Amino acid sequence: MTEPTLTPDQFRAPPQIDTLERLGLAVGALGLIALGAGFLVDASQFYKSYLLAYIFVLGVPIGSLALLMVHHLSGGGWGLMVRRTFEASVRTLPLMALLFVPIVLGMHELYEWSHADVVARDPIIAHKAAYLNPTGFILRAVLYFVIWSTLALLLTGWSAKQDTEEVEYSKFGKVSAPGLLILGLTLTFASVDWVMSLDPHWFSTIFGLWFLVGQALTALAFTIVIAFLVSREGRMAQVITTDKFHDYGTLMFAFIMLWGYLSYSQFLIVWSANLPEEIPYYLRRFGNGWQGVSLLIVLGHFVLPWLLLLFRRTKRASNRLVGLAVFMLVMRFMDVFWLIAPWVKQGAFGVHWMDAAAVFGLSGLWVGVFCYLLKGRALLPVGDPYLPEALADGH
Amino acid sequence: MAEIDQPAALYGLMAEFTDATDLTRAATTVYADGYRQIDAFTPAPVHGLAEAMGYDDRRVQKFTFTGGLLGMIGGFGLCYWTMAIDYPLNIGGRPLNSWPAFIIPTFETTILLAALLTAGSMLVLNGLPQLYHPVFNVGAFRATASSTGFFLCIESTDPKFDLARTRALLEGLHPKAISEVDA
Fold first, then answer.
1. Residue ranges of chain A with pLDDT lower than 50?
2. Which of A360, B20, B154, B167: CA 20 to 30 A from A286?
3. What DSSP string runs through A129-177?
């Protein structure tokens, strides 16, 4: 069998992506206007809501970067078919760096260790001041974004070049192997800086990996939604087949289990030790109204999707899988909310209207930019040397 | 069975193919022709071959689920019964039914029994262990079925089986060779 040569023009984004782009930008604009108004009313709440939304949205590009590098190392048709989705996501990382600026500006509202008088009063925070200080926080954030953006732009740049000319294949792997290690380390530090240090007394060594797996799950759920939208008709419908959705469903199942395993490991260790510097994390989240959110996450982020994904049909029927992926995106936000809100709110359970404005504003804007980037290139890396084989054999 | 026109000691007809693609195509044709008592033999797993023969046996998954359920109840029951009823032990002032600590053994026994019942039921439903199988009467099968040969066997118990017509059908599929399999 001779395969006809594939050209980028055969795989252009369908109208669904235009619709999603307009929808994203419209929702984003409304959300950001509301959030801007909120800033004038209550700047402190603005920063708290913004951090929440930012960490949630960051999951897609940063998780996609991890999945993209895993794909470059492992190979396989599952990754080739959605590589351009991963790539459009990671190309937003420079934008995410720009969107990080409000968190730097709101540092004093969010992180108590950034106040010199708190450090002077509290010997534990004082001992951590060599790491947890405003200058280090900013320098490290710059370093993370430089590293992540470099990895993203290198890999996606070569991939785009591959559409029209020959690119040495081993380059992708040579960047991805150290890249994955570096991403694991930098994201662990970033999770400590941006999230864990909200309570500078608390620490957990499994936190970085747990955070990374959660972000990768966000990225995977989002990628399933996009894979569904682009494969409604045309040539992509023959590319992203039932078998591919089965693969994505299985992968999501694995990430949900890994997330559950890491969450439970952290809980079991803290619960068993019952130490005064560790247990407040759970005491805070098991009372004052937060217990409802905790229960929702156990059931909605683990038990329900786990049971549903046991069934073959959930993975193979793409409309069921995409429904579950949308649900998982909501649960991912709940998980980030459960992680950050009890710390920044310092009290009983509550949702501020600015939380909603921030999450709709930031995700809308991000989705709009993502769609714009996705449309700019072919939906399949047509120049990849393994693509014909992957298309022929259905793996 | 008392057919007159075919030897009673015939297990079936076996065709050998050069590669997995030919075999899958042949299996699809034979199945579409109405044959159901068919089996394929390959040295390595072939994607799509089972589906091509209309294979849709999901009995093993029920055993897996039962095993998982038994393991879960058994594992948690063991922890609960020993720690809270039979030999109550105060560990660091925690409640006797300290369920968070029981989850790990419960998880392990769930996986253990699910895996054992999966493997065990798969073997039993496959008819293993089996000391004699007629397909090994074919010399080429003995020689290459585990290395380079791809075989399709239509059994004589199939209601559509007719030595001459079935042979003609197989010949039309461009096999490397066709052999009669003695029972």
1. 1-2, 395
2. A360
3. TTTSSHHHHHHHHHHHHHHHHHHHHHHHHHHHHHTTS---THHHHHHHH
